[in-house]
Task: structure prediction
Amino acid sequence: MKSKILFQLDGSHYLQDITNNYLLFLPLELFSSIKKSLNQPNCAVEDKENYYKRKAKFLLEKLENKKADMKNFSGRLKPEKIENTIINTQQIVFEMTEQCNLNCKYCGYGEMYGNILPRQKKDLPFKHVERLIEYLNEGWISPKYTGINKNIAIGFYGGEPLLKVDLIK
Result:
C-alpha cells in the first residue's frame, strides 16, 4: 500500500502521508512535480533549473526525515491544552487588511500560487484586536500563565499592513 497519496478536491491539490499522518496543501506546479517524482522515482528531480522540481525534491526528503517527529502529532487536543498554549504565546500576528497596493508575483496571493480564496479587501476590525488582547491579558494575570517573561512580539501582516497605520497605532 502506498503511504503517500496525491489528490485533488474542489480545485485544490493535496499530499497525504498515511504512515506519518500529515496532509499538505500544494500549489498546482508543486503537486505536478511531486506526482511525477512519486510515479517515476528516478526522474530528473535534480534539475536545478526548475524551481518546483527542486522544491518537490526538498519537501519529500525533509518529510521522509521527519517520520519520528511526526509521531508527536498523534492523539486528541484537549481544550485545556489549547487554552494554555494560547495564553502562553510569545508572538501575535494580526492580518490588518486584505488590501494591497502592489501586485507581487511571489506573494502567497500572487499569480505563482493557484487555488487560493479570492481576497475580499476586508480590514481587521479594531474590536477583534481589542477582544483578543483582553482575553490574553486575563490569562497573563492568571495562574495559567507559566511564561518566564511577559514580553510578547506583535507583528502585522496583510495585504499591505501599512495601509492600516491608524489601526496599528
Observations:
- Helices lie at 28-39, 51-65, 67-70, 79-87, 126-140, 165-168.
